[in-house]
């Protein structure tokens, strides 16, 4: 009787593990197909559209627009070298790790460089909003297109050289593209946790709060100022409106960034404490699901940048509408007219 009970318990446990394995595999496939698919499509459309809109006259002279363009340009590499590959790998069963190891190295190298470049351009944009909204002339001088271009270029060069270590440490083993050294894996997870998850919170939060303070002070100052009249008043109101909307666009993007980017490095700390190579069965599948989910959140957070800008800024919507009318609607109307 005791033996029968033990056998029944073992069989029940095995059945439960099989069900959990099937469930997590299904979740991995579903999330990869829909979340990654959504992020890839909306992300590419949004990043390209954002770059085009911020090159228009309404935004062209703004240093913040330069940072937005650089960040969204980097996001194009994220969507097409990370999101797309993860989508076809886990969502459609394409064996991307059966390719030579150089593909594994290049894939993650481009991912980390693009992520860092996009991330720090958002930080630079946060600092720019603080400088541009300051009442002090010496601080406002730091908000300039010339400085923005220099920072964008220096930022890209730094991360291109820094992440060369990825080309050395990543490799394919047991159909897994990952860091092979356990000690370096631990170090790298801690570094990414700090550099990707914890450090950006500090400057983004500080500059965001300081910008809000500057904006509130400017509004109070404008209410008490009655000396500006006529067309000058109209021009100042238009410039102030554009700057205010840039503030709102950036702050909303920072909030979304923090929400969607923090979980992955936190989970990375947990993974550094366990030997993921020894995981098997449903536990290994669960780890893959959790890891994929947090990556999907990062991709989704970047993909939401475009919808956030549309919802936040009527100037952005107006410029986008004009571009669509000029580049798509009018050529189609002319083509139909000539065809008839």
Structural overview:
The chain is an all-alpha fold. 84% of the residues lie in helices and 2% in strands. It is built from 14 helices and 2 strands, in the order αααααααββααααααα. The protein has helices at 2-53, 57-60, 63-91, 101-132, 137-140, 145-162, 164-169, 182-198, 201-223, 230-261, 263-273, 281-303, 305-312, 314-339; strands at 170-173, 176-179. The protein has a two-stranded antiparallel ribbon with strand order 1-2. Helix 1 (2-53) packs across helix 13 (305-312). The longest helix is centred in the first third of the chain and has 52 residues, at 2-53. It starts with a helix and ends with a helix. The relative contact order is 0.13. The model is unreliable at 228-232 (pLDDT under 50).
Reconstruct the topology from this structure.
Elements: H1 2-53, H2 57-60, H3 63-91, H4 101-132, H5 137-140, H6 145-162, H7 164-169, E1 170-173, E2 176-179, H8 182-198, H9 201-223, H10 230-261, H11 263-273, H12 281-303, H13 305-312, H14 314-339
Antiparallel strand pairs: 1-2
Helix pairs in contact: 1-3, 1-12, 1-13, 3-4, 3-6, 3-12, 4-6, 4-9, 4-10, 8-11, 9-10, 10-12, 10-13, 11-12
**Helicity, as a percent range:** over 70%
Binned strand content: under 5%
Number of separate helices:
14
Describe the largest sheet: 2 strands, antiparallel
User: What's the helix-strand series?
Assistant: HHHHHHHEEHHHHHHH
**In angstroms, what is the radius of gyration?**
24 Å
Give the number of DSSP strands.
2
Silhouette: globular
Distance between the termini: 87 Å
Judged by helices, strands and strand pairing, the structural class is mainly alpha
Average pLDDT taken over every residue: 82
Strand arrangement, major sheet: 1-2
Q: In terms of per-residue confidence, which ranges show pLDDT below 50 for 5 or more consecutive residues?
A: 228-232
What oligomeric state is this?
single chain
């Amino acid at each position: 009787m005791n033996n029968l009970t033990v056998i029944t318990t073992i069989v029940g446990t095995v059945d439960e593990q099989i069900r959990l394995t099937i469930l997590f595999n299904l979740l991995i496939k579903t999330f990869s197909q829909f979340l990654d698919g959504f992020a890839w499509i909306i992300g590419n459309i949004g990043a390209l559209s954002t770059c085009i809109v911020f090159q228009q006259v309404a935004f062209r002279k703004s240093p913040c627009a330069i940072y937005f363009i650089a960040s969204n340009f980097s996001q194009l590499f994220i969507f097409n070298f990370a999101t797309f590959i993860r989508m076809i790998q886990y969502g459609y069963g394409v064996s991307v790790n059966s390719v030579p190891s150089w593909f594994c190295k290049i894939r993650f190298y481009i991912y980390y460089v693009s992520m860092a470049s996009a991330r720090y351009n958002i930080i630079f944009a946060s600092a720019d909003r603080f400088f541009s909204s300051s009442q002090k002339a010496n601080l406002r001088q730091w908000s300039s297109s010339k400085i923005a271009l220099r920072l964008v270029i220096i930022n890209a060069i730094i991360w291109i050289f820094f992440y060369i270590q990825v080309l050395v440490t990543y490799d394919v083993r047991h159909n897994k593209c990952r860091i092979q050294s356990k000690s370096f894996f631990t170090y790298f997870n801690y570094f990414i946790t700090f550099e990707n998850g914890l450090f950006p919170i500090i400057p983004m939060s500080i500059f965001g709060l300081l910008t809000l303070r500057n904006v509130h002070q400017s509004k109070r100052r404008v209410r008490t100022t009655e000396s500006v009249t006529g067309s000058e008043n109209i021009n100042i109101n238009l410039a102030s409106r554009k700057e205010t909307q840039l503030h709102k666009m950036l702050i909303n993007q920072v909030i979304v960034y923090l929400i969607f980017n923090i979980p992955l490095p936190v989970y990375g700390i947990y993974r550094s404490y366990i030997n993921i190579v020894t995981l098997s069965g449903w536990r290994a599948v669960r780890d893959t699901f959790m890891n994929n989910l947090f990556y999907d959140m990062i991709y989704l957070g970047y993909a939401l940048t475009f919808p956030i800008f549309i919802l936040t800024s009527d100037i952005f919507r107006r410029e986008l509408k004009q571009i669509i009318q000029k580049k798509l609607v009018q050529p189609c109307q002319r083509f139909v007219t000539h065809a008839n």
